[in-house]
Amino acid sequence: MSRPGRAPRNTIDKESMNNAVNDVVWTGTWVAERLGVELVGDERLGELLGLALRRNPKRAHLLVSNVLGKHVPQSPSVVYGHGFALGRRVRDLLGAEDARAAVVVGYAETATGLGHSVADGLGVAPYLHSTRRPVAGVATAGGFEESHSHATSHLLLPEDPALLAGSGPLVLVDDEFSTGNTVLNTVRALHERYPRERYVVVALVDMRSAADLGRLEELAAEIGARVDLVSAASGTVRLPAGVLEKGQALVAAHEPAPPAPAAHGNAAKAVRVELGWPRGVPDGGRHGFTPGHRIRLEGALPAMAARLADALPDGARRVLVLGFEELMYAPLRLARELEQVVAAEVRYSTTTRSPVLALDDPGYAIRSRIVFPAHDDPDDGPGERYAYNVAGAGFDAVVAVVDSVADTPELHAPDGLLARLAEHTPSVLLAVVPSYVPARTPTERPSMLPEPLRGPAFSSYAPDEVGWLLQDLSDVGLEAPTEEREEAIQSGGAHYAESLPVEYQPNAQYQELFHTALADSAARLAQAVGAVTEIVLAERSPRPVLVSLARAGTPVGVLMRRWAEHRHDLDLPHYAVSIVRGRGIDANALRWLAAHHDPADVVFVDGWTGKGAITRELADAIEEFEASDGITGFDPEIAVLADPGSCVRTYGTREDFLIPSACLNSTVSGLISRTVLRSDLVGEHDFHGAKFYRELAGSDVSADFLDAVAARFDDVADAACAQAKELLAADRTPTWEGWAAVERISEEYGIHDVNLVKPGVGETTRVLLRRVPWKILARTGAGADLAHVRLLAEQRGVPVEEVDELPYTCVGLIHPKYTRGATGADGKAVTA
């Protein structure tokens, strides 16, 4: 990372406090003297900053900018000029070519106008600012947290998702760069989804402590990108011990009593000025603001300013243009234009959510405070809002500029902003900028889907092993007896995904068989894991996003993730999603993945193939999703450990052998059930569901399975890499011979329904554990791979028929045309 060097440091001591700017008392004196706070750094710090006390349990002091136009009314030319000059410096730093490719992002709420001014200084850069106002119908392109703020969650809601997807420099603008946490959170969140080679951090003041100075360099090394920093001034704040407690005590001692409730009376009378805002030009950067928008706005500004000037009272000598929270840029540009055409002194500031102590002292930055209720129906509910340094400032007129979302009855109420302003100025004008509404898709969806479920709250896997894009249905009764489910499924009265089988609890003999099978096959499994992972890394993506098909694919996805970490030091994201035969993949899970990763990097993972039904299901579902959502890039090709059906190109082996995770249900899959899709439980905008069987923790062998296989990685590394190399050079075109075999078996055995024929060791095991089996076909001479199948068949009274030249090791046949009358009194399937 490169960064302009800091100027020699200076301490703003008591003498310089009182002579900071033209012999005017420095507006940080009061706080500095009482808290022992010192500003150390550039000589300009005292000119740019004052100090106040926050009403915030996380930080005692507030650096109050004199040139930002938030808390302190300032000449709009000064405010705009500082941002524009920083933009020019960024342009010079980047050079003409990179500056043309740059995108600027500002932080809500304080730096929305500053960031927009920086974008103007770059000249051709599109602009986007974060927001704390969710907008229905607009999908989020990211989010991050600001840990020290009174309101932490930031959203990015570009109308055009491609705005952030370019490879050019990303310029991040905030008013103050203190700990660096906000920027670090932002860069990590965006870089994971939209990696790029260069970032520029811009701030009016760089106030990092010595402990924080190296964090940008560490971030740059971590992500492999260049990170530059541009600021107007730099320094740091020296805080004595116990400053938070002292600050809170000072606030408590000087906080005035709450104002008496406003008497019920007439609403405020403000003169409404019709601006003539240009149609289609956004009110700011909440959804993106392009250079074309800027050209149109600048063409319309003179006429809008003239309308404001005509509405001002005669003889007005001092005028304030007051913006509204995140709406900073539009009122700033209006104020700057008005400043050019009227003789009055024009000042600019905005209202804010930030609670700060007001104290009428020349050495304190916040001299007065106007309190009023929120008037834009905020997502976090009603609350107080503030306008600082307006009361008692001698303004002859105040022009309140709000967007149309905030032009509500609360704004005009007896205790609303307009009425409060009227108590302190003889003339209040209201200018409303139309809130920009991005084009909506025909079917609106929630802008944010929930974050993935993770262990230990959901599943026994470690939280970094897998994120489940599912909803937790653990408290819902979904289990039904196997025979009831089979009859309902075959009669067409229910879909298999609408209920769950009762979880099979293995006896001691079967558990011992599982552990024996695991010990015997761990190396074989590890080699297949290594081979398929190496193929994925070579052919699909150097940093794939593994998305396993829950639940059989999930242990395999975890093992592939472990191989990539063990062999290549890669920390791959891994999620589990639901796919349901006949219903497709969970479209909301795809939307979440597309919102957080490049779809081209997504690799779907499953344990094995049978006849290839899920392979076809996924391909059809992805095609349907692309048509409905317009999101492209997902590759429906599944990566599997074993492909005995010859249905896919990406596999570790095509042998049909025992994968021990097929021997059990939830107790080898993180204690998670098969997925559920039922209309009364899963809404249009919900993830599919599943249950977490916490009560089975005593029988859980999920970690045993993973650890046993991963322990053999070193032993099989050479063989796995050689196998991958051989497969990469081979013709792996699917032949679908498994599907042909299933169709033949279905006809030969008079079943006439391929869905009741389950080929392969894994699928046969599922038949025995979850369905009502009719018979098992075993290839003549099959040995240890079928030991657990023979045991399960014996327990359920199911015949095992040996067959020559069977293309699979075994095939499970579900009882055709099943009714409960087809079982004996003990519930076992008939034998003929």
Structure description:
The protein has 832 residues and is α/β, with parallel strands linked by helices. It is built from 23 helices and 33 strands. The strands form 9 sheets. A 7-stranded mixed sheet has the order 1-2-11-10-9-5-6, sandwiched between helices. Strands 19, 23, 24, 25, 26, 27 and 28 form a 7-stranded mixed sheet that branches. Helix 15 crosses helix 19. The longest helix is centred in the middle third of the chain and has 32 residues, at 508-539. The chain starts with 9 loop residues before the first strand and ends in an 18-residue tail after the last strand. Mean pLDDT is 85; it is low at 1-22, 147-152, 440-446, 485-494 and 819-832. Residues 283-419 form the TRSP domain. Keywords: Glycosyltransferase, Transferase. InterPro entries: PELOTA_dom, PRTase-like, PRTase_2, PRTase_dom, StiP_N, TRSP_dom. One of its GO terms (molecular function) is glycosyltransferase activity. It holds the Pfam family PRTase_2.
